[in-house]
Amino acid sequence: MRLGTMPVVGTIAAIALALGGCGGSDGGDGMSDHEAADGAVRLAVADAAERTGVDEREVRVVLDEAVTWPDGSLGCPQPDQFYTQALVEGYRIVVEADGRTLHYHGRQGGDPAYCAEPQDPVAGDGPGTVDR
């Protein structure tokens, strides 16, 4: 008896879907939290290199941690802007390049944004340092 390709392909697809949930949560974009965090650091390093005019290899990551922001400004409020008044799970990345310290803030699953005048996240026992 000859096996058809559809049952085999169906079985492989089912296994792939079952295993796809392993290794971290998915923020809906197909990336695990770990992959998204690595991507955020890469974006911050690239931006810092561009802002300071140095090679990306000369940018040093000083801090990369998951935090809780006190509101939708993500610790980087801008004048004349309104923000949601709810806690926001996110992260902060601090890098050094060409003698400058640059801060990047983001919401969980979102891209980092440069923050010229950073504010601190909510104090307390937050989510902690991002596991690399």
Characterization of this structure:
A hairpin with a 5-residue loop joins strand 3 (100-107) and strand 4 (113-115). With 132 residues, this protein is α+β, with helices and mostly antiparallel strands. It is globular, with a radius of gyration of 20 Å. The protein has helices spanning 5-20, 33-52, and strands at residues 60-69, 88-97, 100-107, 113-115, 128-129. It has one domain (31-129). The protein is built from 2 helices and 5 strands; from the N terminus they run H-H-E-E-E-E-E. Mean pLDDT is 79; it is low at 1-32 and 126-132.
Helix content: 25-40%
Task: Report Rg.
Answer: 20 Å
Please state the structural category.
alpha+beta
Oligomer: single chain
Uncertain parts: 1-32, 126-132
Please give the count of helices: 2
Quick one: biggest sheet? 5 strands, antiparallel
The neighbouring-strand order within the major sheet is 4-3-2-1-5
Task: Give the mean pLDDT.
Answer: 79
Compressed to H and E, one letter per element, the order equals HHEEEEE
> Per DSSP, what share of the residues sits in E-state strands of 2 or more residues?
25-35%
Distance between the termini: 50 Å
Rough shape?
Answer: globular
What is the domain total for the residues? Answer: 1
The count of DSSP E runs of length 2 or more, i.e. the number of strands, is: 5
